[in-house]
Design goal:
The protein is α/β, with parallel strands linked by helices and 367 residues long. The protein contains 14 helices and 13 strands. It has a 6-stranded mixed beta sheet, sandwiched between helices. The protein has a 3-stranded antiparallel beta sheet with strand order 8-5-9. The protein has a two-stranded parallel sheet with strand order 6-7.
Length: 367
């Protein structure tokens, strides 16, 4: 299928350019510095989710690596499934002196891909300088986890509650996966971040949840260790040929593709699968990106690119990033541009399938 071929090309491009990111395509001189300045690293989510952990991981590294050693602070602007913060960033494109950067997630990409009328931001106006791939894990309470045996057949009669930021946010990926698996899942829409969904789970107000890798490692793995939660599937990652394989951060957890193949009525081919896969690529393979405002001076862009190259070249980077974020590619230079394009591109067929599903299952219309 054309869409599958496009997805494979995206996977190959991401792998190829990320391998070159540290050695090619980055300016070697920059004449700006940010001495005495404060850099605001704005994310459009609450302080309790995976985006917050990702931003707080990179913020002090940027302070150390940027010329002039500015103070880098993470600023939270949650609301409307992250579109409020993205709209704010679009309106503040004049702050292009290097003191404002913006971090997006799949929850910001998806409304853009679906042409949500709340979106007043244009990704192509922004300058990508970092792209981070990530993963995600779905987990259940201990009692329901005990009934999981590698497929969802025995759980299709259970009634699930899921705390969700909204049907057009990053939660689109799990919601569509749940539907394909035949699970009866009632989303409670309106939470401000995935961390709030985890808190609902911990309070017993939800009995199914997922977290992106960084938040899972920090906040859910302790629940698993205490016997309070059971992981049942990850989203997986793309290999060099565009196949979904097990996430190296969670090699013992089966992928959604594996669970789907084992579950009656779920298929890893056809329109539903291709739609899920398209949004998985946008939401996870190229999930989190850092942008400078459009119009930022080339020397300031170079300042960030060189700082990020220095961060990724640290001898301890693999160790400290794996502990905080999981084992995923961090892409800069041309790699970040390729990831940016992958994150904001979806086929018309996949978009229409998702729009029809959102209308039929949740009464959500984007007109």
């Amino acid at each position: 299928m054309n869409h599958l071929s496009a997805t494979r090309r995206v996977a190959l491009s991401l792998c190829a350019v990320s391998a070159l990111a540290l050695t090619a395509g980055l300016p070697q001189t920059a004449h700006a510095d940010l001495a005495g300045e404060t850099v605001e690293f704005v994310i459009p989510f609450s302080e309790s989710g995976g985006s917050a952990r990702w931003a707080n991981f990179f913020a002090p590294l940027l302070s150390e690596a940027l010329d002039g050693n500015p103070t880098t602070v993470v600023v939270y602007r949650p609301g409307a499934g992250s579109t409020a913060g993205a709209n704010w960033f679009q309106e503040n494109q004049g702050d292009n002196d290097g003191t404002l950067i913006f971090g997006t997630s799949g929850s910001t990409q998806f409304p853009y891909l679906l042409r949500d009328p709340r979106v007043r931001y244009e990704y192509r106006d922004w300058i990508p300088v970092l792209a981070s791939g990530t993963g995600g894990v779905v987990y259940l309470p201990a009692d329901l986890g005990a009934r999981f045996d590698g497929d969802m057949d025995d759980l299709q009669d259970e009634f699930f509650i899921f705390g969700s930021q909204g049907a057009t946010t990053l939660d689109l990926v799990p919601l569509l996966a749940f539907r394909m698996l035949g699970l009866q899942v009632e989303p409670v829409f309106g939470i401000e971040g995935r961390g709030d969904g985890r808190l609902m789970f911990e309070r017993g107000e939800a009995n199914i949840d997922y977290q992106t890798s960084s938040a899972y490692i920090a906040s859910v793995q302790p629940l698993v260790d205490q016997g309070l939660a059971v992981p049942v599937m990850s989203w997986g990652i793309l290999d060099d040929d565009g196949n979904i394989v097990r996430d190296p951060t969670f090699p013992d957890i089966p992928t959604f593709a594996e669970i789907c193949e084992a579950t009656a009525g779920c298929e890893t081919e056809g329109t539903a699968w291709e739609a899920w896969r398209a949004f998985f690529v946008s939401g996870f393979a190229a999930q989190k990106l850092v942008y400078l405002p459009g119009g930022t001076a080339p020397e300031v862009v170079a300042l960030y690119e060189e700082a990020l190259a220095e961060i990724l070249a640290r001898p301890d980077f693999d160790e400290i990033s794996a502990a905080e974020l999981g084992v995923y590619p961090q892409m800069i230079g041309e790699a970040a541009v390729v990831a940016h394009e992958a994150a904001i591109t979806v086929s018309d067929e996949a978009r229409q399938f998702v729009l029809d599903w959102l209308r039929e299952d949740y009464g959500v219309t984007l007109e």
